[in-house]
UniProtKB/TrEMBL annotation:
Classification via InterPro entries: Asn_synthase (IPR001962), Asn_Synthetase (IPR050795), Rossmann-like_a/b/a_fold (IPR014729)
UniProt superkingdom: Archaea
Protein name: Asparagine synthase C-terminal domain-containing protein
Matches recorded under Gene3D superfamilies: HUPs
Pfam families: Asn_synthase (PF00733)
Biological process (GO), any one: asparagine biosynthetic process
Keywords on record: ATP-binding, Nucleotide-binding
Length: 335
């Protein structure tokens, strides 16, 4: 019998499958994985299979079951229809048997943290917006919160590590997000967690960015941004992999994606309120003050971006973080 190697987790119709369950299922052939959901990369003999959206990185395209180098089936879970609230509750529940939550105190991570009841971690320089917000939200919600407060030297060290692995290392936005996430992943590693629940995808699904308020074609913009999530996932997961972890993304569960995309774009950003449907669900679970709070991007809220600007300036790049990143990227890739 071939050896099975499973990274991540697999479910069918909302029920988590143990590794033994999956092995029994594979006796009918690897095509049996086709209706399965979850976040996984599975190898079984010469078979490689990957979850529908490609949350877990792997050498085959997302949503494929390959054997002998060719695709033999598609992974296309088709769970029963449900409301957005049911979808989110189920998606978080399926992921909550272990791990930690990347927590900023905003509505995305707060709803996940409340439902998961797992340890939470927030990252930010001393006195940063995200730390203050996360600490206040955790107190209000009774969460177990750990705080990571990197120094500027530690930001420089983390930058040097992430530019070696992310796809676009000289892009300041990409590098600043990756650096922030690297501190979350490092904390997870130090505390024995391999799964990190995160709010990725909520902004693109529900309309969380400020530019959506004035978009001339909101539906098209949401669709484009959702498609771009595959690129972002690559960045995030290579950073997590540096620390033996991976980001688990409940908002990208097939149930949540379906329920969200069934809501017209104009309802997702309504009356000047971004992520309107998500906030309405959140109000039934977490304090309204948190459910309605405005978003601040992690790289700004954590203070990591400002630290990168200071590092660039201190290294002779007074107006160009990109120039600084190019210098350290060259140095690290020559290393």
């Amino acid at each position: 019998m071939p050896t099975m190697n499973l990274k991540g987790w697999i479910e069918r119709d909302g029920v988590r499958l143990s590794p033994a369950d999956v092995e029994r299922m594979l006796k009918d052939g690897p095509e049996a994985l086709a209706p399965c959901g979850g976040e996984f990369l599975l190898t079984y003999g010469d078979c490689i299979a990957r979850d529908a959206l490609g949350i877990v990185p792997g050498p085959v395209p997302p949503g494929t079951v390959c054997s002998g180098g060719r695709e033999i089936a598609r992974v296309a879970p088709d769970p029963a229809p449900c409301t957005l609230e049911e979808a989110i509750v189920t998606a978080v529940g399926l992921r909550s048997d272990e791990g930690a939550v990347a927590f900023s105190g905003g509505v995305d991570s707060a709803l996940v943290a409340h439902l998961a009841r797992l340890p939470c971690v927030a990252v930010g320089l001393q006195g940063s917006h995200d730390l203050e917000r996360a600490e206040k939200a955790a107190r209000m919600m009774g969460l177990d919160l750990a705080i990571v407060t990197p120094t500027e030297d530690e930001v420089a060290e983390a930058l040097a590590r992430v530019v070696r692995v992310i796809p676009d290392p000289t892009n300041p936005l990409e590098a600043s997000i990756a650096t922030t996430l690297s501190f979350v992943a490092a904390w997870a590693e130090e505390n024995g967690h391999t799964r990190i629940l995160a709010g990725q995808g909520a902004d693109e699904l529900f309309g969380g960015y400020a530019r959506y308020l004035t978009s001339p074609d909101l539906a098209a913009e949401l669709e484009r941004d959702f498609a771009d999530l595959a690129r972002q996932r690559t960045r995030d997961q290579v950073v997590a992999a540096l620390h033996g972890a991976y980001f688990s993304m409940p908002y990208l569960d097939v149930r949540v994606v379906r329920a969200a995309q069934a809501i017209p774009a104009a309802e997702r950003v309504r009356g000047g309120v971004r992520k309107h449907p998500l906030r309405e669900v959140a109000k039934r679970h977490i304090p309204a003050e948190i459910a309605t709070a405005e978003k601040k991007a992690m790289q700004y809220g954590s203070g990591i971006w400002r630290a990168m600007q200071r590092l660039a300036r201190d290294n002779g790049y007074k107006k160009s973080v990109q120039g600084y990143l190019t210098e350290i990227s060259r140095a690290e890739h020559d290393y």
